[in-house]
Fold this protein.
Amino acid sequence: MQMLKLQGLEAGYDESMVIRNIELQVKDRQVVCIMGRNGVGKTTLLKTIMGIISPRKGKVLFMEEDITKKRPSQRAQQGIGYVPQGREIFPKLSVYENLLIGLEAGKEKKVKEEVYAYFPILKEFRKRNGGDLSGGQQQQLAIARALVSNPSFLLLDEPTEGIQPNIVEQIQEVIKDVKHTLHTSMILVEQDLEFVKSVADYVYVIDHGSIVYENSVDQINDDEVYHYLSV
Amino acid sequence: MSELMLTLFNGASLGSILLLIALGLAITFGLMNVINMAHGELIMIGAYVTYVMQNLFISYLPSQYFDFYFILAIPVALLVAAGFGMIMEFSLIRFLYKRPLDSLLATWGVGLMLQQLARSIFGAPNVGVKSPSFLNGGLEVGTLLLPYSRLFILGLSITCLIGIYYYFYRTASGRRVRAVMQNRQMAECLGVSTRKVDLLTFAIGSGFAGVAGCAITLLGAIGPALGTSYIIDAFMVVVVGGVGALFGAVAGAFGIGFFNTAFEYLTNASIGKVLIFLLIIAFLQWRPSGLVTSRSRSLD
């Protein structure tokens, strides 16, 4: 089954067009990685899928339904979870309250123990304000907040960027576990090709707002990917 | 000694009135950053609701139940003012969230319309509301007589404050409001309908203006222009307290209340008013963002 399909998507800010003619699809249970240098439009693409930016042209289809005109909250209700770049934790809400806001999108009433099992620190710090956590802890909270509502599809925007190495490893393990045990489909924006190869099923590389390379992960050509990633 | 006590009580009493007037505005202006110039008219609506309730009780119920009109008027004023707030938000404010100056002008216009509406329905002259009998007289403490009506307003403002605190910090709906005010876009991405939250928050702020209007009927006659005399005080309290900090409004209200009473005691009513304004100007030079500073949703 088709999870997500983007048809001829064009979007940007005000007058400037940041992404052009994007054709992309994610199948059920598939992890799709998006790679590319900084500023080529990866975050804009994810924001367009989430509905924060409305596309100038093209369509966003989620589970074969056209959601191009829907608000982000409706998309979240339909099962899209979003872990944005910069984490976007509610600073004056406690860790637990942040997770409770994450529950708004789903039918769940309580925070599942599995989520705490992924990130035990969140249980320990549940009463602290989100804004008082370190960057790595906030990133764990952002991922947990997206997972509590049992989304069928996850958007992860550079979840390991700027985070201390031991937490990077932990987050990578969680992403692999979500893929293998929860079978959640994902779009993962990631720069680390080794990690991409260990978790992805399919890879797209973006440059200057367009898809310049795509292949399934077992046939990927490292040199070609590096060519687009190098500055 | 007893004069000091009296000044303190009057300060607390004025503070509680200011707090009640400003609580709703602390939500609509403080949290949502909407400069609602019609806030005073929402207070006026609450006052007229009390007047209408009084007349309904006189016409339709035996006189022994008369006193209950006031108890019933408080929730009705809250609901009616919240209803007006909801209509305002839905038909006007929601188009102006990113345009503070336009919303200032537009809500001022709404205020004028509401004043005229009151004039058309109730007539231009002031009308009186008879206080319920249980609020007549006062509590004797030593040589002092503390009027029950003032004590009641003090109690009402504290009750409202506890209610607001409970709503924001203990309920799911209040949690959604706080999330939206802290990070609107992310709350939306997590499935919170920010439209509904905006509508509800504005309605709650307006509702508390209605409650204030209800309390104000205990202080004197009411008229269509009642709101204009309170709107300045309300904004003053919220700005001194700190925009975006609900509990700054408490400090602001009681601070202004005590200083105002003390100045009036030491000089006279008009010099006292001048001194309090000078104090506020000086204070805002020193702390432009008010007593309690808290980052709220910026005017994005």
Observations:
- The mean pLDDT of chain A is 92.
- Strands of chain A lie at 2-13, 16-27, 31-35, 57-62, 65-66, 80-83, 153-157, 185-189, 202-207, 210-216.
